[in-house]
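User: Before I run my own analysis I want an independent prediction to cross-check against. Here's the chain; please return only the structure tokens and, at the end, one sentence I can use as a sanity check.
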Amino acid sequence: MRRREFIAAIGGLLAWPVDMHGEDRERVRRIGILNTLPSYDDHGQERIGAFLQALQQEGWTIGANLRVDQRWSAGNISELRKLGEELVALKPAVIVATGGLAVGPLLEITRIVPIVFVNTPDPVGAGFIDSLARPGGNATGFTQFEYSTSVKWLEMLKQIAPAVTRVGVLRDPNTPSGIGQFGAMQGAASTFGVVLVPLGVRDAAEIERAVSGFASADNGGLIVTTGGLTTLHRELISALALRHKLPAVYPADYFVTAGGLVSYGPDRIDMYRQAAGYVDRILKGESPANLPVQTPTKYDMVVNLRAAKALGLTVPPTLIATATEVIE
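Assistant: Structure tokens:
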């Protein structure tokens, strides 16, 4: 099913009536979803759609035994706490947090309502849980990656563009994951014969200035770290990289479908399906304190040969052979 058809189908599912009568009302469970993306974001909707479909497979149907309340922050960090308070006030049985930025505000608001997080880097280091094996509190879920995997981005960049000696690392200073990923790559930079240049950005204007300024010197390449800001502005970032002839590696496939060169990262849709399993278990009585936090098991590589041609690059056959998807 194409993405827009899939999202439309899920939209119809969410439109089911939720006012129940008699004994049916007592069987309806309520869950909240705190999203860090805008509500119009296709990829955000696709992830939530996969989550809801997986819940259906567990026997939960909106309008029959389940009610879902969503809040979308559109990348506005200051809005997350207010939206989290709105969800907690509805007294849900579980709240799903779609990203590390959403988890902190929720834990400040409640240490009682179970929280299942997705796409969350280093939850132990952030203080969200006690350990991966035994979270210990009211939060559990699925980490976004292991920091060491970001070294793979450097490796891929040098495979595609061996002449690169300067690598701009685009990151949001408000997102801890970008700092951790930069640190992991910094430790390996000399191995690949490159110098890393941190490009801290907080909005679209800073992204444009940072990329344009970095591209003014020769032999440059770009690596984009994970985060709500870079995801929100993925089309701008991909367009800037092509405009300035910068070979670039991205953390997720939606950068490549927006015109980017190559991506490597965890299968985020799979994480949301797995999150539905945890929500189901909590709704049936299990405690998040006893559900181990899981790391990604599936990673995808997507290569855009059209972008490579526009950049005057030839993608090595070995890279194409190992790609999950090739855009020709």
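Sanity check: The chain is about 40% helix and 20% strand.
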